[in-house]
Amino acid sequence: MTRERYDHRDPWTTRDRLSARYETSLAAAEPIHRLWAAVTAHAEHAANGGDEYTTMTPTGEIHYRLLGQTFPRPTPQDLLDGLTLVDETRYHAERRELDLIDAAVAAGIGWQQIGVALGHTAATAERAAKARRAQLARLITQHETR
Q1: In what order do the strands lie in the sheet containing 54-56?
Q2: What does pTM read for this prediction?
Q3: CB 42: neighbour CB atoms within 10 A?
Q4: Which residues pair with 54 in a beta bridge?
Q5: With CB atoms counted within 10 Å of each terminal CB, which end of the chain scores lower, N or C?
Q6: Highest mean pLDDT of the ranges 6-10, 76-80, 128-132
Q7: What is the SS3 assignment for 28?
Q8: Are residue 80 and residue 134 in the same domain, yes or no?
Q9: Are 63 and 52 within one domain?
Q10: Are 52 and 105 part of one and the same domain?
Q11: Measured between alpha carbons, how far is residue 39 from residues 26, 42, 82 in Å?
Q12: Whether residue 134 sits in one domain with residue 83
């Protein structure tokens, strides 16, 4: 079983490939990306006082010319909602990772292969994969009991 190496510099390649293959929508993640874009646009504008890429509208919104989009200034509640969404997204990702590890073990895939698939070197893969599985089980339990 070979695995295409995940490119950390281009995470959307893997997301797009999986979305196309499974025809799923990552709608839960989209609001956080829009909020992140708004926070980033406002931070970039503040850092360089406006430039050829960003302009501030009279209502305090930032217009990002490269994207052709206008971003409202995030409110404190927007930021708190974003943090809540990140926490929920992390929980669901960790739950899926744990389920995939357990399914791989049940399918007879060795811990070394699982560890390599999780991004570890062959020398540490087995130990790291078992440690990650234990960590995920603890995190899931903590999240579900709070």
Answers
A1: 54-56, 62-64, 69-71
A2: 0.63
A3: 20
A4: 64
A5: C
A6: 128-132
A7: coil
A8: yes
A9: yes
A10: no
A11: 21, 5, 11
A12: yes
